[in-house]
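Apologies for my clumsy wording, but could you write out the amino acids of a protein and the tokens describing how it folds?
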Amino acid sequence: MDAPAIVPIVAPESAQQAIGYPSLFLLVLIGALVPVVPTGALVSSAAVVAVHRTAPFSMALVFVTASLAAFLGDVALYWLGRRGMKSKNGSRWLEAIRARAPEDRLAQAQRKLADHGVAVLVLSRLMPAGRLPVMLACLLAKWPVRRFVRGNLPACLAWTVTYQLIGVLGGSLFEEPWEGVLAVIVLTVLISVAPGLWRRMRGTAAG
């Protein structure tokens, strides 16, 4: 008679979660530091998958994972930017922020930051391409890291909720998870590129 197997069988869904949440955390963290990764699409896609899962707390885990990764990434980038501001030669992180903060957007962010303070930082994460101009405005205003952290925490929470809701909508409209994922990726990419296309069209029309 064969001995009973003692190796536990891992359910496929549990295995997916064990891989998926650390991957989501890492990708959102990298996306916050290197702003070329479409982090909003990642969160919405993870929410689509969570809608179709039977495991409890899937949506809550997506929320905690994504918001924590976005928060830590933002704070790390801001800290690196402050180091660059203090350095005589600057830093590649500071240059990366400057490169993605056009002069007109930076001037607008500085005016709004002077008028409304932390509220602008909270809203900046919800605006496409709004995070880095406001972050640079905070750096130029010499905000300490502690003050930036106080405003950035609710900003990251609101950002995660917004993109999760997009994912929930996509997951509810489609029976297959991959259909919902495809839909929210297309939607979030369109949202992220729309401001740049609009500015380019306005510049072309003005010229």
Notes: The radius of gyration is 20 Å.
